[in-house]
Amino acid sequence: MVPEHRGSGLGRDIVAAAEGLARDDGISELYLVTETAIDWFPRLGYETVERTDAEAAVGASIELTTVCRNTGVTMRRSL
After folding, report:
1. How far apart are CA 77 and CA 45, in angstroms?
2. pLDDT by residue for the chain (79 residues), tens digit each?
3. Which secondary structure element, helix H or strand E, spans residue 29, and what is its range?
4. Dihedral of CA 41/66/19/23: which sign?
5. From 9, 25, 35, 58, which residue has the greatest number of CB atoms within 10 Å?
């Protein structure tokens, strides 16, 4: 994120919009993989989970198998 926008709430707004779309589609649980926002997502209700939990829920996404295969932290939030 551009430094002058940090703390502006833009990230929270984007996550809230994505969660709203998920709820509208009947999705009750979200998973993500992050390398850089490990301390930020828990503030939004996400918890760290084992990668195998995510793999069982969402399958073999590119994030889990390629992009962040060895370095990403897997997180989950119930909506």
Report:
1. 6
2. 567 777 888 889 999 999 999 999 999 999 998 888 999 999 999 999 988 887 777 777 777 777 766 778 889 999 9
3. strand 29-34
4. negative
5. 58
